[in-house]
Amino acid sequence: MRILPEHKIKEQKIEEHKVKKIAVQLTLMKGKLITLEGIDGSGKSTITRFLNSHPAFSSAVFTREPTTSWIGDAVYKAIESNTDHLAELMLFTADHANHIATLIRPALEDGKIVISDRYSDSRYAYQGVTLKERFDEPMEWVQQIHKGWTVVPDLTVLFDIDPEIAVRRCGKRGEQTKFEKIELLNGVRKNYLRLAEKEPERFVIIDTDRDLKEIENDVLQAITSIMEN
Ligand SMILES: Nc1ncnc2c1ncn2[C@@H]1O[C@H](COP(=O)(O)OP(=O)(O)O)[C@@H](O)[C@H]1O
Ligand SMILES: Cc1cn([C@H]2C[C@H](O)[C@@H](COP(=O)(O)OP(=O)(O)O)O2)c(=O)[nH]c1=O
Fold it and tell me: Which of 92-101, 168-177, 219-228 is the most confident on average?
């Protein structure tokens, strides 16, 4: 058996205490929807994996958009081809409607904490750029078609980063989608920041051009802070 030095035991105890504290706070937090948003390569999936393996989140429901349903598969077909941007928006939106009906609403009604890697703000921010030739105020137009049926998140964590850095990170990751272009991502980032400015009570902006540990701590703090509301 390895005997840990005194300071390591202390660090371990502090860590265990932190996990317990978050777990207690989360038990009190019933039926909350938390969304993670940001441009491609901003670090959402990395943080989703961290939260998913964090012991305090063992009873949370983790999900994503595009979903893993057949509509989500259709969405990926659109992403991988030259599909008309309006048709693409409709597919993303159909996927969202089905996501809400089959997973989001039932889980929230069951008192679960739901954490979604991308959600409605992805549509507002991305299709707000791809549809800029079609509508005068594309982002507002896309928001409008969600009114009356979408479920608005309790908290949206916006992962903010310079697109140049994000695209470089995506390159290293090895996958590339047609949206991973600096010019397009600059527009998407601006849209996200406009959304956050319009709803400061819902959004928390996290600078993800930092050490992963700092980002993890800030995300945990943002999530537990909605307990106070
Ligand atoms: N804080 C960070 N510092 C350096 N690299 C990071 C950081 N966060 C994520 N990455 C790396 O950047 C790439 C994109 O991250 P990922 O989580 O897949 O982004 P997203 O899901 O937002 O597209 C991955 O290769 C990941 O390992
Ligand atoms: C959910 C959603 C995603 N997207 C885009 C963002 C991504 O470039 C792409 C696929 O999403 P995703 O697989 O989440 O990409 P990543 O892991 O790189 O963030 O679809 C939209 O344009 N609109 C949407 O409503």
Answer: 92-101
The whole-angstrom separation of Cα 133 and Cα 122 is 18
Give the DSSP H or E segment for 140. Answer: helix 138-144
- Quickly tell me which residue has 């990926």 as its tokens: 76
Residue 227 has pLDDT above 70, yes or no: no
192 lines ligand 2 (CB under 6 A): no
CA angle 171, 176, 179 (to 5 degrees): 115
Angular region, 41: left φ>0, alpha ψ -120 to 50, beta rest: left
Among all bound ligands, the one having the nearest atom to the CA of 157 is: 1
Ligand 2 contact, 79 CB (< 6 A): yes
What per-residue confidence (pLDDT) applies to 2?
A: 66
Cβ contacts of 151 within 8 Å, gap of 6 or more: 33, 100, 104, 105, 108
- Asked if residues 193 and 129 have their Cβ atoms less than 8 Å apart, the reply is no
Encoded amino acid at 136, one letter = D
The CATH number given to 33-228 is 3.40.50.300
Our mutation pick for probing the ligand 1 site, out of 168, 173, 209, counting the most ligand atoms within 8 A of Cβ, is 173
Report the SS3 class of residue 117. strand
**Domain ranges, ordered by start, for the chain:** 33-228
85 lines ligand 2 (CB under 6 A): no
Residue 206: strand, helix, or coil = strand
